[in-house]
Design a protein that fits this description.
Layout lengths: L1 H17 L7 H8 L1 H28 L6 H44 L7 H18 L5 H21 L20 H10 L5 H8 L6 H27 L12 H4 L1 H33 L4 H17 L5 H27 L4 H20 L1
Helix pairs in contact: 1-6, 1-8, 1-9, 2-3, 2-7, 2-9, 3-7, 3-9, 3-13, 4-5, 4-11, 4-12, 4-13, 5-11, 5-12, 6-11, 7-13, 11-12, 13-14
Length: 367
């Protein structure tokens, strides 16, 4: 029974972290390209992400001691690999925290502004202060919190689904595609499905059941993809052309305040736990790995994304697309190059995958 509980917590921790802020960008992206294009992206990128995460799982199992990506890179790719890994890890976590700040602040504002006065900036700052305080004191969202958070997430999602049935129009899922936006989903979907940073922690959580790691990776990513497709069906089916970049505010005109407040609460729950988890992870990178003073590590972790937000970097889709295509693309290439070191006979598999990530990076920079 304990073994089963450990496996359930491991799956919920990984899938609960993967299912994050990227979820809210998917309906808008689908509005641009249509459901069939998105489904194709999920099949191709979902397979790619599962493979790369499994490769990282094999690296984690083969390498003694708990490490993060830069630690693995130093062992298998030397100092230059470690430096690149640090840069990509730090920038991708900064980008993710900024995305959570943009969306979490908007949801907080949408949820409370009907009852209280105040600008959206004020609500974003309030969201930030609570999250930063929890990151400062190191409140650790343990596996049980992730598990019950995921359970609550599914309950709210199904309540929204059953309450909004009369408003769902399947023809909304098949808008006329904007072919100029054909590559827009790439970075957003990669960002949405990525959870490699958590794999060493899941391995540690499994204790004497480490052999289950690769299966857990596949199950967690598959669950995340199914949830995303269901969410796209739900939001785009209801709001159609009125779908907003962050999905939930566009539902208000159709569903009214009551059901949208529930949806916004669900959005806050999803973004806030991940904001804290990723904030703690980045703080540890600065504090443990780069040997910074603990308070300085906290200050850089929290205030750099806030400064970016305050100077006007507030466009949600471009932020997650940049992080997904470029930063996570670099992480993917690093994992593949490391995997080649332990499995040189699989070189034929590694090269095409590296080229996909490289193509995505180049396209995102030009685009």
């Amino acid at each position: 029974m304990n073994n089963f509980k450990t496996l359930v917590y491991a799956i919920s921790t990984l899938s609960g972290t993967i299912i994050g802020v990227g979820l809210f960008g998917l309906p808008y992206v689908t509005l641009k390209v249509g459901f069939w294009v998105i489904l194709g992206y999920f099949l191709v990128l979902g397979t790619l992400v599962i493979m790369v995460h499994q490769f990282f799982g094999e690296l984690a199992l083969k390498t003694p001691n708990f490490k993060r990506l830069p630690g693995f890179a130093k062992i298998y790719l030397g100092k230059p690999g470690q430096i690149v890994a640090y840069i990509s890890t730090i920038l991708s976590l900064f980008g993710a925290l900024l995305a959570y700040l943009i969306v979490g602040g908007e949801f907080f504002s949408e949820l409370l502004s009907p009852f209280f006065d105040g600008s959206s900036l004020l609500y974003t700052l309030f969201y930030f202060i609570i999250g930063a305080a929890l990151i400062f004191f190191g409140i650790k969202p343990i596996a049980k919190v992730e598990f019950w958070g995921l359970v609550l997430f599914f309950i709210i999602l199904f309540v929204i689904f059953f309450r909004s049935q009369p408003f769902i129009a399947t023809e909304n899922l098949f808008p006329l595609p904007d072919w100029s936006a054909l590559f827009l989903p790439y970075g957003v979907i990669l960002f949405s499905l990525w959870g490699a940073a958590l794999i060493p922690e899941v391995e540690e959580m499994l204790g004497n059941q480490k052999k289950m790691l690769l299966k857990i990776i596949t199950i967690a990513i598959f669950i995340s993809a199914v949830v995303y497709l269901f969410f796209i069906y739900l939001v785009l089916g209801i709001s159609g052309p009125q779908t907003t970049e962050t999905a939930l505010p566009g539902l208000r005109a159709i569903l009214g305040d009551g059901i949208v407040s529930l949806a916004l609460l669900f959005g806050l729950l999803t973004t806030f736990t991940s904001f804290i988890t990723l904030g703690l992870t980045l703080k540890k990178v600065f504090w443990y790995d780069l040997k910074m003073n603990k308070n300085l590590a906290f200050a850089i972790t929290c205030f750099f994304p806030l400064i970016l937000f305050l100077i006007g970097v507030k466009q949600f889709i471009p932020v997650i697309s940049f992080v997904g295509a470029i930063m996570l693309g670099i992480d993917g290439i690093l994992i593949l190059l490391m995997y080649q070191k332990i499995k040189p006979e699989r070189k034929f598999l590694v090269l095409p995958l590296v080229l996909i990530f490289l193509g995505g990076i180049i396209y995102e920079i030009i685009y």
